[in-house]
Every structure is written in structure tokens, then in C-alpha cells.
Amino acid sequence: MFYEDFIVPKGWQKPVYDFKENKLSKEGFELGRKLFYDPILSRDSTISCSSCHSQYTGFAHTDHALSHGIEGRIGARNAMSLVNLAWTKSFHWDGGVLNLNSQPINPITNSQEMDNTLINALGSLNQSKKYQGMFYKVFGDSLINTKNLLKAIAQFTVSLQSYNSKYDKVMRHEKDVYFTDQEVNGHQLFKKNCESCHKEPLLTNSDFADNGLTTDADYKDFGRVKITQNPKDSFNFRVPTLRNIEFTYPYMHDGRFMKLREVINFYTNGKVQRKTLAKELQKPIVLSENEKKDLIAFLLTLTDKEFLFNPKYSYPKQ
Fold first, then answer.
1. Which of 16, 118, 128, 165 makes an SS bond possible with 304, Cβ 3.0 to 4.6 Å?
2. What are the phi and psi torsion angles at 118 (to 5°)?
3. Can you tell me the distance from the alpha carbon of 41 to that of 109, in angstroms, rounded to the nearest whole number?
């Protein structure tokens, strides 16, 4: 079922991605990787998927609070980290896409991002003999169509796996890998105050919640309610994974916080109390200054340098 490099770590739940519908292969992965880094998908061939999702920052976007598209156009939200997507049921901050295979349609066609049409993107790809050859090897058809384009990109993005942080190695009881006393205390504080939403081992519950942020002045973004039209979903945004959180700043859907300390201070002393506030956050979170330091020390153990610097995820040489 899986490309040999895809791993389901011990103790993790079964992935939700349908591998039968898009069987992974080495050739498919390399095709998706090439497409991910190629600006050919944008209208003016200036930006690629990797422009907003850099490997060294956990496939997130740290240069700007909000994503940037062609001609310097500024989006409305921060680009999310792409990691462990095989376990993700819906995508984007508002869950507006329900299938990883169709997710690339949004950035390709969004006027603030790649500002292209699928017809134009396919036209550019079909003019490339190299791409025609690669698609033929993977799908048995050199005429590139929308379905195979999206499947190819998904073969790469579904393979972006992070499971080798210090945290993971401690949880697996690997030899000579231990938490410091500070990290142990931070882990306990995390389980008490954070794990109800950021569930281990994925460090997210894949749900949406109102975390008490004030509405941004520029975009007045009310989150998931735009998708569901249900008032109960007002101010609800995706609960992001905390994996590689050290490198995926700025934080929140609008990138308003640059430092982990700011995020923790917000949760302890900045939440807006309203009807839609997540029930898990309705009780005050009280942390001393030393406890905040311990919590941050634990969060730093979620950094997976084997993922961040793995050459197989980087810009293809050819």
C-alpha cells in the first residue's frame, strides 16, 4: 500500500489518507517534489508551493506574518506548517478543503497566491517534455490532467513526516535519550494545560476552536464560520500541530506572535471571554515565570531536525 519510505510510527493511529486511491511510489514522490518547488504553477512563474512552505521552517512561512503571493500580494492568513498530513481530515485554518488531493487547487487559483487557472497550469506543464515523461512513468499517461497533477503533488505532501524529535525518542524509550528535569516538568505542565487540544503524539486534535484571540483589525477574520455558516463556529480556527513549533513562527492564524513566550503569555493573561471560547480554555491557566520557562523547554523537544534538514524533502537537484 505504501511507498517504502512512508512510516506509521508505533503507537500512532491509522492514517486517514486514502492510499488505495493514490498509491505512493518513488517516482510519484519525486514528481510531486519537483512540482512543489517549481514556480511553473503560478500565473507569472514567480512563486511555488515552497515559497510559502519552507522545509527549514517546518514547511511553514516565517518571513511574513501573512502569506505572500505573486506581485507581492498579501494574503489574509499565515501559511500553515505541512507535516503528518496523512493524519489530517481537513485543511487550511478554516477546514474549507476536505481532501489532500484537492488542496492545491486553492493556492493555485487564489488571486492573492498563485493567481492562475488549472487550464493555464496544465497548459504550461504539457509544454514540458520532461514533465510529460515523468507523468507517464507515474500514471501511464503523458497528457497531464487535473486529477493526476493533484495526485502527484499529494504524493509529496503526504510524505512530509515528522516523528524523530527528542520528544519522540524519549517516548520510544530510545537508549541514552532522556528529558532534563526542566523538560519533564514542562511535559507535565503541557499535559495539564495544553494536551486537551494538542493531543499527543500528533500534538493536535485536528479540530477547530475559538482560542480567545481578538479579531484582527485589518481582515476581521471570523474563521470557520465562513465555511459552515454556523454562528457557533465564529472565531474558530484549526488547532495546529505543535511539532517543530520552535521553527514555525509567527504563531496564530494571522501570525501576530513571533515568540513562544508571547503565545504562553496570551493563554495565561490575554484570552477574550465570549460564548464561543473553547470549553478547554474557559478556566484560567496559571503559570509562574519558571513554569513558563519549563513549558517552553518541553516545546523545544518537539523540534525534529531529521525532518527539517532531510535532503529528500529539499529542492530537487534535477
1. 165
2. -65, -35
3. 10
Q: Tell me if residue 237 falls in helix, strand or coil.
A: strand
Phi, psi of 312 (to 5 degrees): -70, -15
Is the Cβ–Cβ distance between 97 and 26 less than 8 Å? no
Give the predicted TM-score (pTM) of the model.
Answer: 0.94
Note the pLDDT of residue 2: 52
Per-residue cell: 29: 514522490
Specify the 3-state DSSP secondary structure of 83: coil
Question: In the chain, which residue ranges form alpha helices assigned H by DSSP?
Answer: 26-37, 105-109, 118-126, 129-139, 146-157, 166-171, 181-193, 225-228, 260-269, 289-300, 305-308
Helix, strand, or coil here: 223? strand
Residue 181 CB partners (closer than 8 Å, separation 6+) = none
Task: Count CB neighbours of 115 within 10 A.
Answer: 19
Cα separation, 46 vs 74, whole angstroms: 15
Average pLDDT of the segment spanning 225-239 = 96
